[in-house]
Structure formats: C-alpha cells, structure tokens
Amino acid sequence: MSFIKRWWQLFEQTVSPKYFYRISERFIPWLTLLATLLISIATVWGLAFAPADYLQGNSYRIIFIHVPAASLAMSAYFLLAICGVISLVWKVKTAEMVARAVAPIGALFCFLALVTGGIWGKPTWGTYWVWDARLTSMLVLLFLYMGVIALYNAYESSATGAKAAAILAVVGIVNLPIIKYSVVWWNTLHQGATFTLTQKPKMPTEMWLPLLLMLLGFYCLFGLLTILRTRNVILERERRSQWVRELVKAEAAKRGANRGL
Amino acid sequence: MWSSVLAVISRDLKLAFRQSGEWLNPLSFFVMVISLFPLAISATPAKLSAMAGGVVWIAALLSVLLSMDSLFRQDYDDGSLEQLLVSPAPLPLVVLAKVFAHWCQTGACLTLLSPIAALLLHLPADVAWALALTLLLGTPTLSLVSAIGAALTVSLKRGGVLIPLLTLPLHIPVLIFATAAVQAALNGLPIEGYLALLAAFLVLAVTLTPLAVAAALRLAVGG
To answer: Integer distance in angstroms from the first to the last C-alpha of chain B?
Structure first.
C-alpha cells in the first residue's frame, strides 16, 4: 500500500499547477517553431502550388483552414470534457485550469469553421447557410461552448465556476453523439469526412499532404495557445500562493535591472 | 428510502397547490405564446396545422424552461436543500422525486392542455392524440435536462437567464423527434418509431441526469 501511496504522491506532485507552470515553459519555443513552420509551409503549398479542383476551381482552397479548424473545435471540446472528468473525479486543479483555458479557444475555432464553411458554401452550394446535419451540429457545438463560457463568467469564485463548468462539459459530451445522430437523421447534405484513419484519402497527394501539414500545424498552435492561456489562468488563480509571489518579485527585479542598464 | 422520496413528492406538490400562481403562470404563458403565432404569421387553417407541431413544442420548451428556476430556488433560499443533502436518502433519488413533482405541475399540465392548443391551431383529432403522446413522453426529458441547468445556477443571484442558455442545445434531439412525430401523424404515417426514440431519451435522462444534478447541487451548497 505504501508503494501506491508513494506513486500517488509523485502523481499529485506532477499535476500541481506549479509543476505545470515550470514544465510547460520548455514546450513554448518548440511549439512556436513547429506551428510557424508547418502553417507557413502548408499555407504557401496549399494556396499557391496545390492543383485547383476540377469542379470547384480555386474556391476549394479554403479547406486548408476549414478542415483543421473544424477538427480542432471538436478535439477541444473532447479535451474540455476529459479535463472536466479528471477535475471532478480526482480533484486535479490543473485540469480545471486547462479546461478554463481551452473553452474560448475551442469556441473560436468552432466559429472559424462555421465562417469559412459559409464562405465556401456561397460559390459551391449557392448559399452561405443551409440547415444541414453537420452545419447544425457544429452550430450546436458553438452553443455548448457558449454555455460553458457563460457559466465560467457567471460565478464570482473561479474555483466554483470551474467545477460547475466541468459538470456542464461532461453532460455536453454525453449529449453530443445523441445531438449529432439526431440531426443526421433529420437532414443531410454535407460530404463525408475528408480523412479517416483506416482508408486512403480520396484526394490526390498534392492536395491532402498540405492539408495534413496544416492540420498538424493547427494542432501545434492549439497546444501553444492552451499552454499560454493555462499559464495565465494559473498565475491568476494562484496569485496568493508563495511561489507566484516569488516569481513575480524575481520578474520585477529582472525588469528593474534591465531598465537600470 | 422510499418513504423520504414519497415525502419529498407530497411536500412539493402541497407547496405548489398552496401557491397556485407559481405553476399556473407557465401554463398561461404556454397558451399565450401559441396564440401569438396565428397573429404574427398567418391565420389560415392549412398553414397553422402544418406548423402546429413545432409551435406547440417550442412553446412547451419555453414554458418548462421558464418554470425551472423555481425548482431548487426556494429550497436553497430557506435552507431545506441542505437538509435534503445531509439526509440518508440517496441524493439522485431525491432529485428524481423533486423533478417528478415539478413535472406534475408543468409537463403533465401541458400535456392536458395540448388539446386546446390543437384546437387553436386547427389540428385534426388523431394528430392531437399524437401531439399529446409526444408531450407525455418528451416533457419529462425536458424537465430532467433543464434540472441540470437549474442546479448549476441555483447559487447564483441572477441565474434565471442562464438556464435556457446552458440547456437549450441539449433539448434539440427531443425537439427534432417530437416535431417529426407530429409531422408524420399529420401526413398519415406511423409514429411508433419516433415515440420509441422519445421513450429511449426519457430512459437515458432518468438514469443519468439525476447524477449530474446531484453533483451540481453538492457544488452549489458545499462550494
């Protein structure tokens, strides 16, 4: 039993906000570099060099933003719900903070996916918006994000707000497949998924390779944004603790020294 | 255990009948919203019956959401919610009892009122039956799901507007299949499949939502 206890202590130590704050600093330069490289390569490749579609012409090129944004919007909600479960079951504070940081990013990507989809829909389907199953479930996902964010903001104590939002996020993820299949049975027009893990893509290599790079770049960007925002949330919520005070003092001393030079 | 559940149900119903304004307001709201549609869109019987299912269901959804703030508010304010939390009866079961008592005041009454709504919107009698059945199966799910929103916002001073904002996306499946059932009945098609789906949602809601509501209530009281 003492063995398990020691492991648990080690685990608790690694998930403490302080540890997260220190360890996440190392990832920032790498993620910045990767995200910049991947997104710029994929943008130039996708917009300038990839061949035009035989039916849609150049308008299809918006998928290089649309697909990664849509994919991230869903992954971010999934992460939100996982963090919710972790914070509710094991009372891990850092998970609450990550969830707090992820919610607005996910909402933003969801909004981006809807807007780019509308822009693409005008020349292709002849309309900005149709009440199709996938569009509708994306809109519902945006509503779910807005509910979670509204709940965060409604509570004065950020700790209680985070727990309430965790419950809502978990309820939302249980409902998401039901909503998804409800609207699929209700109406459908959208094409199937572009990428699946089991099948070779139906697009030519010159088209899906930049898309894949863009997707990876977006995920790096998402990781970077999550880390940066989580660090802010940690500093805000732990501002009364010893280590944050010392950190701020050290930072202030450094600034002061720089100014003195 | 069962005695405390029965006690909660009878207490809530007694309280409701002694302050009748509380549960009559959402019902009059329901009838008023329905009477607005013919005025705002068109009073032609053919048009009205074509959109009747959606109109009745949206009105029902709004009036259930409107009444939801009162589910835990009074108990939270006078401290009896804390007593329920420390009582030996399992909290999810108590929640189920409270939601059932609340549904008797809202969803059940809406189901009983639905023939009047069908009359106002020129629905044929057999479709009115289908409408009443969807309300009977669907409104308990609405009450259970919005109870999550009510529990999450009960400790907030201005929680009322938040409940619809949090739970409206979760009501979409019920809304879709209930209105589809009414539409199918209007076209003379069988509606058993839709009713089975609504019943499935209800079973899922009965088993899962009390757990979420209980967690939210513990958070609201314990902080």
So the answer is: 26
Q: Is residue A228 part of a domain?
A: yes
Instruction: Please say if the pLDDT value at position A189 is more than 60.
Output: no
Domain count, chain A: 1
Average pLDDT (B182-205) is: 92
Task: Enumerate the residues of chain A whose CB falls inside 8 A of the CB of residue B162.
Answer: 150-151, 154
Contact A164 B173 (CB under 8 A): no
- Predicted confidence band of residue A251 (pLDDT cuts 50, 70, 90): confident
The verdict on a CB contact (< 8 Å) between B165 and A168 is no
Backbone angles phi, psi at A80, to 5 degrees: -55, -45
Q: Which domain holds residue A224?
A: 64-235
How many cross-chain Cβ pairs, A to B, lie less than 8 Å apart?
Answer: 67
Query: Which chain A residues touch B168 with a CB distance below 8 Å?
Result: 143
Identify the residue among B167, B204, B207, B219 best suited for mutation to test binding to A, counting A beta carbons within 10 A and taking the highest.
B219
Please enumerate in sequence order all residues whose Cβ is within 8 A of that of A259, keeping only pairs 6 or more positions apart, or say none: none
User: Do B144 and B207 meet the contact criterion of CB atoms below 8 Å apart?
Assistant: no
**Could you tell me if residue A8 is inside a domain?**
no
ipTM of the complex: 0.88
pLDDT at A197: 54
Nearest CA in chain B to A176: B170
Distance from C-alpha of B5 to C-alpha of B8, rounded to nearest angstrom: 5
| Paired tokens of A35 | 């995200």
Q: Is residue A76 part of a domain?
A: yes
Question: Given this model, what pLDDT does residue A191 score?
Answer: 57
> Which chain A residue is nearest to residue B174, measuring alpha carbons?
A182
